[in-house]
Amino acid sequence: xxxxxxxxxxxxxxxxxxxxxxxxxxxxxxxxxxxxxxxxxxxxxxxxxxxxxxxxxxxxxxxxxxxxxxxxxxxxxxxxxxxxxxxxxxxxxxxxxxxxxxxxxxxxxxxxxxxxxxxxxxxxxxxxxxxxxxxxxxxxxxxxxxxxxxxxxxxxxxxxxxxxxxxxxxxxxxxxxxxxxxxxxxxxxxxxxxxxxxxxxxxxxxxxxxxxxxxxxxxxxxxxxxxxxxxxxxxxxxxxxxxxxxxx
Length: 248
Fold this sequence. Notes:
- The structure is a single chain.
- This protein is an alpha+beta fold.
- The protein is 49% helix and 15% strand.
- The chain has helices at 3-6, 14-22, 24-31, 41-58, 64-79, 85-105, 158-168, 193-211, 217-221, 236-246, and strands at residues 113-120, 129-137, 142-148, 174-180, 185-189.
- α2 crosses α8, α4 (41-58) packs antiparallel against α5 and α5 (64-79) packs antiparallel against α6 (85-105).
- It starts with a helix and ends with a helix.
C-alpha cells in the first residue's frame, strides 16, 4: 500500500517537506484537512520582486525603473492594494530589492531557464518530487533560486539548501541561492548537494511513516498539535483555521 496515494498526495516538493519538518500541524491542515492558508505580504513581496528581477534579466535593455514598476504592480495586485502597515513596509522594500537583483545577475547574461520544471524520483519514495527552478544558465551550468529578505542572510538557509539541491539532482549543474535586500546582495554556492537531497528523502520517509499509521484522515489530524508561536501561524485567519481544524 502507498500511504501517499491513500491520502490523495500525488507528488512532493521541497517546500512541502520543509513545512512538514518545521511545523507538521501546518502541513496536516493544508494537505489532509484541505485548508488553504493565505500568503502573507512578505510572500507577495518575494513573488513580485522576483517578477521584476526576471523581467530585467530577460530584457537586458529594460531600464531598472520599468522592472521595479512591474514588481510594484504585481504586489498591488496580490495584496489587493492593502494599506495594512505590513503591506506598506513590504512594498517599500521592492524597488531596492529589484535593483540589487538586476545589477547582480545581469552580468551572467540572459537566462535560458525560467521556472523550469524538474521532476525527481528518490529511492523508497513512491511518488515524485516536483519543483520549479527560478532561473538557470545552461551555458554556465548554473541553476539559481532567488530569495528576498529585509535583512541579509549570512549563509544559505537549511530549507533553501534542500530546495536547490533537489533542483540540481541528477544533473551536472551547480546550485546557487541569491539573497536580495533593499540595500544588499549575496549569492552563495551550494556545496554537498547530495547530503541535502538525502535529508529530503529522509523527511519524506518519515512523512510516509506518519501517513501509514491510519487511512483515517481525522485520526491523523487529531494526532497533531499546532505551535502557534511559529511564524507559520502569524496570520490571525490562519490561527483561527488551526483552532477549527485541531480544536486547540
